[in-house]
Amino acid sequence: MKIGILHIYLILISSLFTEIVRCNIITLLRRKREGMKEQKIAVIGFGMWGRNIVRNFYNLNVLDIVCDLDDESLRIVKEQYPGVKVTKDFNDIINDDSITGVAVVTPSHTHFKMVKAMLEAGKNVYVEKPISTVAEEAKVLTELAEEKGLILMVGHLLLYHPAVNRLKMLIEEGALGELVYAQSDRLNVNYHKNDRSVMWDLAPHDVSMIAYVTGKNPVKVISAIGCSSEKNAIMDITHIGVEFEGGLIAHISDSWITPQKRVTLLVRGTKATAIFDDTAPTDKLKVYDNFIPANTQNYPLDYIEIEPLKLECQHFLNCCSSGHKARSDGENGYTVVSILEEAEKIMLGSKLEDLNKKDFALSRMKV
User: How many CB atoms lie within 10 A of CB 152?
Assistant: First the structure.
């Protein structure tokens, strides 16, 4: 299938990566014209991922303060980011009326308490995935943000990846035909294992990404198994099967113990099969004709490489300025958590009660 240069250009300028340039120009003009409040962002948590969040908001010229309990972390912030304030007390953020948005990048078992406090203080919130490990908590946060007219955005990073968005466009154009199957493999090594399981750590990416590119919501879990290589309550290998709208079946495999990293998404249609490989240095997205061996040249796969996290952070700022719901909003987070909660019940059965008793310093709702 040949697509003209003009068509490619129109696709490119309409896709996500134009948001940075467009937002930087339009938002500045709108603020000057309408006197809109300047964005000031606080980040809670300066761990492995929090450092990336801090870097991006700093480079976007909106980072005001970083909160963390570790003295060494705060020292690094002051050294690397001149002019950025630091604190150990998140109440300093709650009580600062000039802070317009807060990024919560703390362990998942703290998300509910932390996000709820920020929303109640009138702050827009970006929270790392998962929004919670309890569907009822995710629902409460979503409803609270809606009630207060605030932005609640979940860090489903792959929804902002240029290659993922290019795949979504190919699917919408019908390049793959009718969708029949998806498979997402997210395999790596994690020496910390400080979450409920690898599923809660990684599968939010898989479920949200498959739903996004296919345009189909998850309906139910059809299978869920997992095991612990250390023979304890924390599963470090999981496999779940999910049915999406229209009968699309997806299999999702996640691992904390795989020495050779693998991060791929396969989407099979009646005409062609697409594979997104996020570990590939180049050509992350390829499309294979189902009927012609080794034919990957049918479709133009041009897209601009921009750090997905930068796009995600810019999207949050744009939503805070415009009031528009985020692509990965609270409802999106609730849908993902509901599926994973269902999978965990199937996977663990009677052992779920034992896991719930494990001391994660959980902020779980008592119902």
Answer: 29
Domains recognised in the chain with CATH numbers = 5-157 (3.40.50.720), 159-304+330-357 (3.30.360.10)
- Which of helix, strand or coil describes residue 86? strand
With b for 16 or more beta-carbon neighbours within 10 A and e for fewer, the 280-314 pattern comes to eeeebbebbeeeeeeeeeebbbebeebbbbbbbbb
- Angle value at C-alpha 158, between 121 and 100, nearest 5 degrees: 20
| Dist. CA 309–CA 276, nearest whole Å | 17
0.90 exceeded by pTM:
no
Task: Give pLDDT tens digits along the chain (367 positions).
Answer: 444 544 544 444 455 444 544 444 444 444 443 334 689 999 999 999 999 999 999 999 999 999 999 999 999 999 999 999 999 999 999 999 999 999 999 999 899 999 999 999 999 999 999 999 999 999 999 999 999 999 999 999 999 999 999 999 999 999 999 999 999 999 999 887 767 899 999 999 999 999 999 999 999 999 999 999 988 878 999 999 999 999 999 999 999 999 999 999 999 999 999 999 999 988 899 999 999 887 665 456 677 889 999 999 999 999 999 999 999 999 999 999 999 999 999 998 867 776 666 655 443 333 3
Burial string for 163-172 (b: 16+ CB within 10 Å, else e) reads bbbbbbbbbe
User: Does residue 53 sit in helix, strand or coil?
Assistant: helix
